[in-house]
Amino acid sequence: MEKDVLVSIRGLQFAAEDIGSSAADEDLDRLETICPGQYYFKNDAHYILYEELIEGFDEPIKNMMKLREGEFMLTKKGPINVQMVFSEGRKTMTDYCTPFGNIMVGIETQHVETVQTQESLDIHIEYALEANYQFVADCDIEIKIKNVAHS
Question: Which stretch of DSSP H or E encloses residue 18?
Fold first, then answer.
């Protein structure tokens, strides 16, 4: 893959104030985010860097994805700070820091699947999401990384 890529993330999205509520799956929105990014492969891991603009914030969120066999990590820095680890067959906990307060997030990952070609990298993750030790939803995320020239 080339350095310049388009990052497409499709899955369940929710506002920070909704994370702690007991909203049913139907209340969560399926959204797709598409933004430019940079791709690197180093030490047997795929790295994708991109910035995300969120309504109501002047400063972008800087994101780094790291993918290895059976494990996906997403680190966000800026108005939202978190490091989420999706490790197949494991439950991980992290502190999700937002301008509205911190939330303890649990991620129990059932499946991390990747398909790689010369032009793209497709990632599919299935997991159960908890917020402040309460079940929120069974979730799935589809991430597509494509060379800019082939998008």
Answer: helix 16-19
CB 7 within 8 A of CB 143: yes
Give me 145's structure tokens: 């990384």
Q: Which domains does the chain have, with CATH numbers?
A: 4-150 (2.40.128.20)
Model confidence, pTM: 0.84
61, 59, 29, 112: CA torsion to nearest 10: 0
In this structure, which long-range contacts are made by residues 76-84, counting pairs with CB atoms below 8 Å and at least 24 apart in sequence? 76/52, 79/54, 80/16, 80/54
Name the residue among 3, 8, 2, 4 with its Cα closest to residue 122: 8
Extract the tokens encoding 54.
């969120």
In 14-100, DSSP assigns E strands to 29-42, 45-52, 61-68, 71-77, 82-87, 91-98
pLDDT at 24: 44
- Distance (Å, whole) CA 114 – CA 121: 7
What would the mean pLDDT of 92-110 be, rounded to a whole number? 95
Residue 135, classed as helix, strand or coil, is strand
